[in-house]
Amino acid sequence: MSELVEILDQFGVKANALPHGNGHINRTYLVDSTPRVILQRINTTVFTKPAEVMENIMAVTSYLREKLEAAGADPKRGTLTFLRAKDGKPYYKTAEGDYYRAYYFVEDTVSLESVENLEDFTEAARGFGKFQQMLADFPADQLYETIEKFHDTPNRYRQLDEALANNSSGRASEVQPEIDFALSHRKYAAMITDAIADGSVPLRVTHNDTKLNNVLLDAATNKAICVIDLDTVMPGSMLYDFGDALRFGASTGAEDEIDLDKIHFDLTKFEAFTKGFLGELGDSITQKERELLPLSVLMMTLECGIRFLADHINGDVYFSIHREGHNLDRCRTQFKLVAEIEEKFDEMAAIVAKY
Ligand code: ADP
Ligand code: GN1
Ligand code: MG
């Protein structure tokens, strides 16, 4: 038996698995069983306590299942459903120490890699907004912090400092313009963490990785139905979810586009998302959060850029790469966007004021 077949057997599934999706973290396979299943190897370099990650995910998905059932919605489409391994656990640890999990593929859905039309982006925003609303009364103290200081931008700057000091790839001298850009924008780093610390921005249960391909749209109706990639669901700020979604979705090009002339921050996409997200949050958003929405987009884009830069300098140890310099290409698109966002702050604030 091949290794994957043997692993699937642990979940009572007998079928073949092929690589699937474009995630940067876990290794994902689509299994041609009936019903179809997603098999995933959890990245244990990124998630050092996979059992805690799975405890979080099982707690969150059971909570969502109950809410969806109560609302008359189908929980098998509205959230992820995990299979148990032979020992009853929602994951299987191989003899080599790898962690795998299996859950049902949500059929007849699309996971978009870019915004093809504005309505889809508004729908994605509704999906992420609804997800946050459904978890508003989830007991946050029951969640492990699966990655410490995940969106703590000052911490991300310290990690860049460390990467520069170690320069383990020897690449630092080749990326001076990007290093200069990162360091010249350090003034923004503490703006959200300070607002959380002084109490003006509340901690909520947030998703923290609201990339467009982490929400599934129904292929027939185009409605957002299921938020996936739940590894980083933990206490955070709604500003992280808003900012990160726009970092990715409001760009006119791919995250790893080499031709930077194709990369712009598109205000019509910003508006499409803002409309959907704020529509779902209603009155639950505070005045301070509202004020910080444009800044959150700048900060999440800057933070992601410095993470890609640090990983490039560290020798590509965190994000999956598919070519030489891939993380540097990703860093450059993020920094190009940051520069444009800085110029569009006033227009962004005017759009926020409309909703
Ligand atoms: P990563 O953490 O590496 O981003 P994801 O959990 O996001 O991994 O999975 C990678 C991709 O696989 C997703 O972006 C999505 O396209 C697809 N995918 C994952 N789970 C499902 C599912 N249950 N149904 C349909 N597609 C899925
Ligand atoms: C990773 O797992 P994925 O591909 O959805 C990363 C995010 C980054 C994103 C950049 C756990 O998201 O934080 O914003 O890549 N996830 C983790 O594309 O680090
Ligand atoms: Mg993902």
Keywords:
single chain, alpha+beta, Phosphorylase Kinase, domain 1, Aminoglycoside 3'-phosphotransferase, Chain: A, domain 2, 2 domains, globular, binds adenosine-5'-diphosphate, binds 2-acetamido-2-deoxy-1-O-phosphono-alpha-D-glucopyranose, binds magnesium ion
Describe the structure.
This protein is an alpha+beta fold and 355 residues long. The protein folds into two domains: 2-107, Phosphorylase Kinase, domain 1, CATH 3.30.200; 118-354, Aminoglycoside phosphotransferase (APH), C-terminal lobe (Aminoglycoside 3'-phosphotransferase, Chain: A, domain 2), CATH 3.90.1200. 46% of the residues lie in helices and 10% in strands. It contains twelve helices and ten strands. It has helices at 3-10, 50-70, 75-78, 118-134, 153-166, 176-184, 191-197, 238-249, 267-281, 287-314, 326-343, 345-354; strands at 17-19, 27-31, 37-41, 92-93, 99-104, 109-110, 204-206, 215-218, 224-227, 234-236. A five-stranded antiparallel beta sheet has the order 1-2-3-5-4, covered by helices on one side. A hairpin with a 5-residue loop joins strand 4 (92-93) and strand 5 (99-104). The longest helix is centred in the C-terminal third of the chain and has 28 residues, at 287-314. The chain binds adenosine-5'-diphosphate, 2-acetamido-2-deoxy-1-O-phosphono-alpha-D-glucopyranose and magnesium ion (MG). 2-acetamido-2-deoxy-1-O-phosphono-alpha-D-glucopyranose binds at residues 23-25, 46, 209, 211, 214, 229, 231-232, 244, 255, 304.
